[in-house]
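Reply to dn_fold:

You asked what the input looked like. This is it:
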Amino acid sequence: MKRAHVAGLILGVVTAFAICEVAYAQSPEDFEEKPEEKEAGPSTLKTVAAFGLASLGLIVVCIPAVKTFSSNSSYAQSKLSMINLLRTNPYQAEFMAKKMEGTYCEAIAGALKIGGTLAGQQLPMIKATTAPTYDGVAQGIVGKWKGDAAKAKVGLMAAVAGAGIGLAGGSLVFIPIILAALAVSAFLRLLWYSHDLNSQILRARAEVLPEVDAAIASGRYRSAPPAA
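and this is what came back:
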């Protein structure tokens, strides 16, 4: 019994010394309460960058996209109007075609102007002049839209980057996301119009350009209106 008592006493003394040694080894700073770290809030710089990039990108995409709405008439409507005018009043057809810049009608106007210098000549000679003229003007129109699409693509990337920056730590994230979504919609509209324009140019070459040749060959159209 005495041995158990002595052993317990010795174990208690050793434990007390061990606790004191650990307490002594720790610095007073370890017992100080550390302030809680505050969570970082939305970054003002990221917010400004997100708004700026998204807005600028949307503007760059919308500038060429808005031009696609300048011609409200469909190909079927414009084709019927153009063919009717070429058969009845080619000069009015030329005036109408010049106003429809950026469409196949612009190429028709170019073919009329150049082909009109051969009024009264044989049809094969007229075709040999109007067809390359039409193709050249049409290629210029398509090239212009391709250039606009390339610029719009840069704007689209900027708008998407702005939305990404907003998601990464900006405030009012939904605004750059909406702007980016609008930029995507405008870019898709531009791509659709460019594809449709190529189709219209090919169709008009087969359906409308022959009427140009006929108007010139019959003498109904010359490069300058005949004197009264």
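The chain has one domain: 43-217.
Hope that clears it up.
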